[in-house]
Amino acid sequence: MAEWDNPDVELLHDINGLARQAPDWADHLMEYVGEYGTIVALAVLGLWAWWTARRRPDAVAAVAGLVWAPLAAGVALLVNVPIREFVERPRPFLTHDGLEVLVDGKRDFSFVSDHATLAMALAVGIFMVNRRLGLVGILVAVFAGVCRIYMGVHYPTDVIGGLALGTAVALLLAPVALALLTPLMRAMAASPRIGRLVSVPPESVARAGEPDAERQPQDRDLVA
């Protein structure tokens, strides 16, 4: 068939074909992970990054960067709306026979993947503040995209486009976003009621027996 001459379609069948060979429990697991699990994992990484960022010398800027991560994801999803409407690419299972579709109800356009866009924007936002956790997040985002192909609801290029879009929005708009968010976080840090959401006083860190922030260079990764 001519469709097999297309590397995008060939890779789609290769990855989705694993679902046909896998036991039902594995398909259900991949369906849950692809729909919800990866986003929950990124949320946990973001909370972990926030918990440690509050103890850094540059806590205000770091927390501002982490606040930008979910905002970047939201902006990226909004940017994707006109892209989808312009490209108008049908879901792969609507135009290619023989796919194992693990989730019903996906009738909107396929390019680009919302899940991949959302996941990568979150991951890149975390990476700009904490490279170690951010690298884990990027791997989770890529796996989220693979899950969408496995589930039969996206082409590989849908996923690649989503990963690229999420990255671009998170990085390119970060300077403007941080310029707006940093003063807000600074004002919150000065508040006696909610200040600990942004910054933990150094004396509290010392009492807790935590290492001095200057000894933790891996956490001082915010891109100003």
Write structural notes for this entry:
It is found in: Cell membrane. The chain is elongated. The longest helix is centred in the first third of the chain and has 30 residues, at 24-53. Residues 212-219 have low confidence and may be disordered. It is built from 9 helices and no strands. 67% of the residues lie in helices and 0% in strands. The chain has helices at residues 7-21, 24-53, 59-87, 92-95, 114-127, 131-150, 156-172, 174-189, 202-207. With 224 residues, it is mainly alpha-helical.
Protein topology:
Elements: H1 7-21, H2 24-53, H3 59-87, H4 92-95, H5 114-127, H6 131-150, H7 156-172, H8 174-189, H9 202-207
Helix pairs in contact: 2-3, 2-5, 2-6, 3-5, 3-7, 3-8, 5-6, 5-7, 6-7
Condensed summary:
Helices cover 67% and strands 0% of the residues. By secondary structure, the protein is mainly α.
Provide keyphrases for this structure.
single chain, 224 residues, mainly alpha, Vanadium-containing Chloroperoxidase, domain 1, 67% helix, elongated, Undecaprenyl-diphosphatase, membrane, transmembrane, hydrolase, PAP2/HPO_sf
Which CATH top level class fits? Answer: Mainly Alpha
CATH third-level topology: Vanadium-containing Chloroperoxidase, domain 1
Measured between the Cα atoms of the first and last residue, the distance is 52 Å
By secondary-structure content and strand pairing, the structural class works out as: mainly alpha
Organism: Streptomyces pini
Protein name: Undecaprenyl-diphosphatase
Membrane topology: Multi-pass membrane protein
Keywords: Cell membrane, Hydrolase, Membrane, Transmembrane, Transmembrane helix
